[in-house]
Write a structure and sequence with these properties.
Blueprint lengths: L1 H30 L37 H4 L16 H4 L9 H6 L4 E8 L2 E8 L3 E8 L4 E6 L3 E8 L2 E8 L6 E7 L2
Antiparallel strand pairs: 1-2, 2-3, 4-5, 5-6, 6-7
Length: about 190
């Protein structure tokens, strides 16, 4: 009996030490991590894809780029004198480098269009750009399973149930993305 208690105590001490050491290592990394807020993307509704429905969702507020060009980006200034100091008055008072806002980061990326594809067995949302496409989400319906494959210049999403397979294929091998959907089985 005493031997069992000694072994239990040794196991408890070793497990506690391992958990404490792991937590200290993970905690140090998580404290230094900066998380970005997720950006909500509005998908067109199913009603808008039906014939006779509206062409798409109507925005409820002003577009994000409604600010005049002078407010959106600073006007170009004449070439600075190379012999002058490299710091500007705004940067001299700041101790940390300024991070661009999420809006500034998004405006520098190439334009994209979000497309939603309702399919037999689920729904696929793609971010389609001029030279590529990215999977935003793929959601199977109840009772259907989903598989996703992707390569450097192609993407395939399958929804399957019994002997039916509904497939969405996207390829952009040096061209604009080409989306094809088809169903195999009964």
């Amino acid at each position: 009996m005493r031997s069992g208690l000694v072994q239990l105590g040794a196991w408890t001490a070793a497990t506690g030490a391992a958990v404490a050491l792991s937590w200290l290592g993970v905690h140090a990394v998580l404290v230094d991590t900066v998380f970005e807020q997720p950006v909500a993307v509005q998908l067109p509704s199913v009603a808008s894809s039906k014939p006779g429905g509206p062409a798409g969702p109507t925005p409820s507020g002003p577009p994000p780029s409604s600010a005049p060009p002078s407010a959106a980006a600073p006007s170009p200034s004449p070439d600075p004198d190379p012999s002058a100091g490299a710091t500007t008055p705004a940067a001299a008072g700041s101790s940390a480098p300024a991070r661009p806002s999420a809006t500034a980061r998004r405006s520098s990326s190439p334009p994209s269009t979000l497309h939603s594809y309702p399919m037999l067995g689920g729904r696929v949302a793609l971010d389609v750009r001029a030279t590529e496409a990215r999977l935003v989400s793929a959601v199977p319906e109840a009772g259907w399973s989903m598989q996703v494959w992707h390569g450097d210049q192609w993407l395939q999403v399958n929804f399957s149930k019994d002997d039916r397979v509904s497939t969405l294929m996207v390829s952009w091998n040096g061209t604009a993305p080409n989306v094809q959907t088809f169903v195999v089985g009964n």
